[in-house]
Amino acid sequence: MGNLMGSLKYKDPSTVEECDSTWVTDSEDDTYEGEEAEGSFSGCPGPSGPRRCGEQSDSFPQFGDTAESSIKMKRSFHAAKDLYKYRHSYPNYKEPRQPNEYCNLRFYLNKIPLVPDGIYIEEILSKWKGDYDKLEHNHTYIQWLFPLREQGLNFYAQELTQDEIKEFLNMREAKRRFLLAYTIMLDFFGIKLLDKNGNVARAANWQDRFQHLNESQHNYLRITRILKSLGELGFEAFKLPLVRLLLQEALLEGTLPNMRHSALEYFVYTVRARSQRRGLLRFAQRLYQPPENFIWGPPKRRRLPGVGVKGSRMEAAAAADRSVSQTTPPVQGRPSSPKGEKAMGSRSAEGPREEKDNQENMRSPASQKVHSLDM
């Protein structure tokens, strides 16, 4: 029996290809990746359908695109492995040995403050929104607001456990506060939550906040953590609208050019459904410049006899259009605000003219040092 159990022991993937099953199939009927894995935690119902919970921390640095044109692009194995484990709910995860005190849940029920600062969740929700200096320079709250099943660099913050996740999902007050915390961070990034389905759009202050976000790349670690925590706590469906908006701003609008690499290498791969990841990557591939540096697409296939380059490109564009329409949830109509506010998924933002104009203007400023305390 011991030998049998040993043969079934989980084995870590050793290549990027083993970590990434996005292009294993082109079927759009895929279930969440890893949901058949032994020991995985399922049954995390969210606001708009079934979903699963995952884990892990933002433990690998994410950088901008400054060096893209001078070096050959390649995928990060550490990032791919990290996100593979997250999407599969950590196959070899072990619960902490100490008694589970549900510290994350109790924090969200306003029963204990975050440590070490001694601040309660209600104070954050009522006083921190719009206080961008505090949100930028305090590096201990993010692990409490968006907990994961892995230890971050705030060693006072407690890891989530499967039992705690189950209890959290049954607490309406905890989930309500979690979404309020999400809206505070979206506002910090220059984004607003539109509805209970997770659709997002530019906020009124988007220009100033996007400029800051483009120049403060340690916040990309925070976004990765937020996306993972959404999946942990029952809001998997909220990831797709946010990731697509960030891709649109980075690749089409040119407002977040430094985010291109992190969005494609990290944000997309927090999404568990393979079909949704494919849709996001096809959307990105149509906009990415230079196209030969796009390394997240499907494996190259041998061209069929009689099919020219022009024909295959037209077929690829049509397939991308279909995939984007299938993976983009409905959003509110695009506002006519003079400030240029765009709802995520606005089809008018994908027109060839705007796409060409914005791609010509996309330049990546110098990459900045990643702040490790946000991991």
Automatic annotation (TrEMBL):
Signal peptide: none annotated. GO terms for cellular component: membrane. Residues 15-38 have a biased composition (Acidic residues). Residues 39-51 have a biased composition (Low complexity). Residues 98-301 form the Opioid growth factor receptor (OGFr) conserved domain. Residues 1-60, 306-375 are annotated as: Disordered. Residues 339-360 have a biased composition (Basic and acidic residues). GO terms for molecular function: opioid growth factor receptor activity. Residues 361-375 have a biased composition (Polar residues). Belongs to the opioid growth factor receptor family. PANTHER family: OPIOID GROWTH FACTOR RECEPTOR OGFR ZETA-TYPE OPIOID RECEPTOR, OPIOID GROWTH FACTOR RECEPTOR-LIKE PROTEIN 1. This is Opioid growth factor receptor (OGFr) conserved domain-containing protein.
